[in-house]
Every structure is written in structure tokens, then in C-alpha cells.
Design brief:
By secondary structure, the chain is α/β, with parallel strands linked by helices. It has helices spanning 35-45, 74-82, 116-126, 141-151, 155-182, 185-201, 207-219, 221-236, 242-259, 264-290, 295-315, 319-335, 339-385, 432-445, 466-479, 492-496, 522-533, 538-549; strands at 2-10, 13-19, 24-28, 61-69, 92-100, 106-109, 112-114, 127-130, 392-404, 407-416, 424-425, 454-458, 484-488, 500-509, 512-520. It has 2 domains: 2-131 and 423-549, 3-Layer(aba) Sandwich (Rossmann fold), CATH 3.40.50.300; 186-335, no CATH class.
Amino acid sequence: MLATLKIRNLALVEELTWDLPAGFVAITGETGAGKSVILGALKFLIGERADRGLVRHGATMATLEAVFHLPQSKELDQLLEERGVDPCDEGTLILRRSISTEAAGRQFVNGSPCNVTLLRELGERLIDLHGPHDHQSLFSRSEQTLLLDSFSGALMERTHYLEARKKISALLREQEELLAGVGNAQQKEQWAQELEEISSADFRLEEEEELIARHRTAAQGKRLSELAALAAARLSEDEVNVASVLAEVTRSVRELVRLDPQMEKELGEVDLLSEQLQGLSRRLANYSDSVELDQQELLQLEERLDLFAKLKRKYGATLSEVMEHGKKLEERLASFADLEERLASIELRMKEARKDQQAAMKQLSTRRQQGAKKLITAITAALTDLGFRQAGFQIALETLAEPGTHGGEEADFLFAPNPGEPLQPLRMIASSGEVSRVMLALKSAMAHQDRVPLLVFDEIDANVGGEIALRVGAKMKELGKEHQVLCITHLPQVAAAAAAQFVVEKEVRDGRTSTSLHVVEGKKREEEIARMLGGASDSALAHAKVLLKG
């Protein structure tokens, strides 16, 4: 139920906190007192577009807040968690919205910021507004079909159908993913060619670096050989070379040692230089001999490096990525091996799921057809009670070309308010008064199945009076046993049937007009009912007492 509604600085309302009781609640008051503001606040809280012009003159922001107490909040909690909003705390849901004249308004659910779309989604599950130009869930064919299923006791069959449909969807996705992951025959041929190209290269990851070094050496072989030979010649082969000069130095130092033994150390150093020089000369000569200018090898190296460059252009930036691509190709090609077997398994499961879906759909249709007859009878009786003595009401079950989310058919509630008029879909009814009474009849017939906890009726008493008004009040009272019902009414017969009555009044304080709301009980309520009957005369008060006694 809606436990509390708070309004601040909205139109004529400066500050209002309304603690609501359960059951059937009537809202009455003079025309223009501001009853529509209460209704407007609820609309804004469930996502209707907010007009900045409704912010009270002199204020920069209007704020609205609604607190709902929900014994069963699991479904809403799931929706809230999917939208990144905190779930209800022990079944308490808090909606809050601000309307600013200077900036964009803001919305909150359970203290978490949200968008208007979430408010609308919650509104569809929390409140049914019945009045001129208001959204009404029963106009939706999907909702009509669901309500018919609930009334018909077909929710289990509906669940079985949806489970089979869900299983089919999952199998179709599995099939699509399998085919997408494996590819077609043309892709298979392409992958085989790519794998052959990579495999035939038969490379090692470290091979490229080795080839680059070898190519560098082979490409500069002649120059390397010349430089090494020249260095070796300068050391020991030329007419004037380092070795001959060092030999003269050695002879001189030996003579020094013979004359002065203290130079023995220097002789050792010279001998060491001589040995090192001979070794260096040999190594340079050997290197010069080893570097051969092999054009054939150079060509082979270049061809190999060109192959690596081609592979990298096609399959990856490095040979490592090329190798990884080859492994993926092997996996894809391997998956073709059991493709037919896996597809056959999916097809077999698909066949069983379609069979289950067909059986569930048939059972669901049978239940609907049986339930539709009973529901037509119940709604027709309720319409008769509400003054539509010769109105027509039917439920059309339209067979769909393809099974949909609701099965093989979809319900459409048809209504003709007057004899001789053709039946039309409920959503096409023009008169708000007729719409409200039809909705009341529907709600009465399906009170146990309707999932929306709060029903709001505006101007439901349009164009009725007398005995019909009493019946409308009785229907409201009965409906209040299953739902919380708010009814803005001008009919005393309807207001008197309510479990509680609140009066909306305008008052002027300090030169400003404000709208207030207060509960009326006992004598005050008798006086309000009498006012609605036409005045505060003794006869009106007596009639009011009679109405309140029921």
C-alpha cells in the first residue's frame, strides 16, 4: 500500500504530509480545491513529464515523496538490482522527485539517483490510474492476456510454455554461436590454406634473430675479410710490420737485461706482448679466411627473411603472434570434425523443446478459452450492476501467425456501451466516465488476480447517480478488500462507502492561497457527505447518516 505521500511547493500545496490507511479511501472537496494536485503528484512520482510551471509561486523547487509498504517486494527488488538501485528495506519502497525552476529535476528510488524510465517501470507495477488521459495497464493486450491467464488458473501452463520457449531460444543461441565459432565450408578452406602456409614455413621463434645476424655478416663478407686481412698483414706480414718492430724491441731489451739484470721484468712484459701479437695476428688471419662471399647463401637468407615478413604482414606483428594464429586455426579446423554431431544433438533437443512448447501452448489455449467464458460472465454482471444493463463485453482470442511471448494467441477485451454499437477494443473507448466504470467492473471481477496494489479512480462517478452511484460505492468497497483504492469523487453515495474520507480544501493565509488535506470522521464526515448531497439541511444530514451506516 501507499503509506505516505509528501508534497511540498506544488501548485497550491505548500506543505502536505498524507498518511494513508489501507482499503477504500475517498477524496472529496469543492471543485477547484486542488484534488487534482494530489493526483498530479502521484503521476509525477511514476514518471510523468513534470511541468516547471507547477512549482509554487515564490519557490524554486517542488519536492514529492511516496513511501510504499510492500509485503512481497522480491519482483521489484530484482528490477531495482538490475538497474543498480538499492532494494527495498523490509518491503519499504521510497520514491522521491524534485521539480526545479532553475535546473533539471532529479529522481531517487530508495535514496539512489535514477532516471525517469525507472519511475515509469515501477509505476506500472505499483499504481493504476483511471481517469482522463491516464495510462491504464488494462489497455495493454499483454496485460489483458496475463490477467486472463491468472483468472483462468493457467499460470502454471503459462510458465511451462515460457520455459519451453526459453529453452528453444537458448538452443538457437547455442546453434548460432556454434556456427559463428566454427564458420562455413568456405571459411574452412581458407583456414586450411592459412594453416598450410604457416606450417610449411616450419620456423622457430628464435630463428629470425639468428637469420638477421647471419644476413648482416653475409651481406658485408667481402669488406669484413679485407679489413681482417689488412689488420693481420700490418701486424706480421707487411715489409714494415708490428711483429718485426717488436722483434727489434725484444733484442734491445734482452741486451739491456744482460747489462742490467734489473730490467728482467721489462723483458717479460715484452715477451708477453710478442705472444699476444702473434695470437691476434693468427685470429685475424683465420677470421679473414673464414668469411666467404657466398652469394647463394645470401640469397637463401633473404628469401627466408622475406617469408617471415610476409607471414607477419598477414597473421601477426611478430612470429610469436603468427604461431598463435596457427594454433587457433588448428582449433577451428578441429571443431569441424564434430560439428555435424553437435548440430544433430542441438536439433534433437530443439525438437523436444518445440514439442513441449506446442503441448504447453495447447493446454494454455484450452485454459484461456474456458476462463474467457467465465470472465465474460463475471464482467458482464459487474457492468450491469454499474449501470450498463445492455452493454456488450467479449474477449477475443486472436491467433498469432507465430507463437509469441504469451503463447499462440493474444487476448483483446472488447466493449460496446450501448445496444446496437459494435464491439471495440477497450483502449478505443472515448468516454472517461465509461472507461472508469468498465475498469471498476474489470477490477472487481479480477480482484484476486490483479497484481497492481494501488488503484486510483478519478471522476469515476461521471454521468451516474442514484442507485448506480450506490452500486459504484459498493464495488469500490469490495475492491478495497483486495487493493488500496483511492477515489476522487463528487458522489456522496461513493464517498460514504469508503473506509476513510479525506477532504481537500483551499484556504487563504497571509494573503496566499494554499490547499490542505485532512481526514473527516464522525460528525465532520456527516457534514461533508451532507454538503455533497446539496447542503447542511436537516434532511441532508439525515440522509448522510443513512448513507454512512450503509
